[in-house]
Amino acid sequence: MKLVFLHGFLGHDSDWDEVIKNLSSHHECRFSPKKTNDVLIGYSMGGRIAMQIESKKLILIGSHPGLVLDAERQERMRFENHWLSFLEQNSVEAFLNKWYEQPLFKGLSIPKIRFSLTKEDIRESFLKHSILKQPSMWDRLPSSFLYIAGANDQKYSLIAKKLALLYPNAKVAFVEGASHAVHIEKPKIVAHLIEEFIC
C-alpha cells in the first residue's frame, strides 16, 4: 500500500524513520502526496495539510481541524506573533530550546536535526502553514479516519474526543506515556495502529 507521511512544524522526513521501520515491508512510503489513492498520515501541521487533500485513507496524529471562533483566531495570532518576535531577537538554538519547553512536548528530547534549521526556515513554516490560513475542517473530514493522540497531551486528547462524537465511524486511539509527538515517542505503537487501520 502507498503511504505518504507528512511531518509537523519544524519537522523533517526522518522523524518518521522509526515508525516506517516497524511497518510491514510491502508498503511503499513517501513524503509528498501524488495521487488520491494514497494513505495520508500527518502529524500536527502535516495532519492539517492532509485533511485538505483527497486520500484513500486518512490518519491524523495530534492534528487540529481548525479554528472556529474569532477569540481562538485572536489568541492564535498573539501566539504566532510572540514566537516570531522571539525568533527575531534570539538564536535558532534559543528558539528551539524555548519551543520544546512547552508542556506539549514534555519528556521529548529535541531531535538533533532541528538544529540545522535556519531562521528563514522557521519563519517560512510559521507563515506558510499557519493554522490561521486553514479553513475549519471540523465538518469536512471523511466519515472514517484514524486519530492518534498522546494520552499526556491534554489539548489534542480533547480534540480526539470531540472528533469521536462528531464522527461515529472514526477510530480514536490514545497512546499511554506519550505527549504531542507520539510518532517520535512511541513509534512501535503508532506503526501498529497504522497497520491495524489500513489492513
Layout of helices and strands, plus pairs?
Blueprint (H helix, E strand, L loop, with lengths): L1 E5 L10 H5 L6 E3 L8 E5 L1 H7 L5 E5 L8 H20 L2 H8 L19 H10 L17 E5 L3 H13 L4 E5 L6 H4 L1 H12 L1
Parallel strand pairs: 1-2, 1-3, 3-4, 4-5, 5-6
Characterization of the model:
This protein has 199 residues and is α/β, with parallel strands linked by helices. Helices cover 40% and strands 14% of the residues. The chain has 8 helices and 6 strands; from the N terminus they run βαββαβαααβαβαα. It has a 6-stranded parallel sheet, with helices on both faces.
Task: Note the main attributes of this structure.
199 residues, Rossmann fold, 2 domains, 8 helices
| Residue fraction in strands | 5-15%
Q: Tally the beta strands.
A: 6
Number of structural units classed as domains: 2
Low-pLDDT stretches are none
Which structural class fits the helix and strand makeup? alpha/beta
Overall geometry comes to: globular
In short:
The protein has 199 residues and is an alpha/beta fold. The protein has 8 helices and 6 strands. The protein has a 6-stranded parallel sheet with strand order 2-1-3-4-5-6, sandwiched between helices.
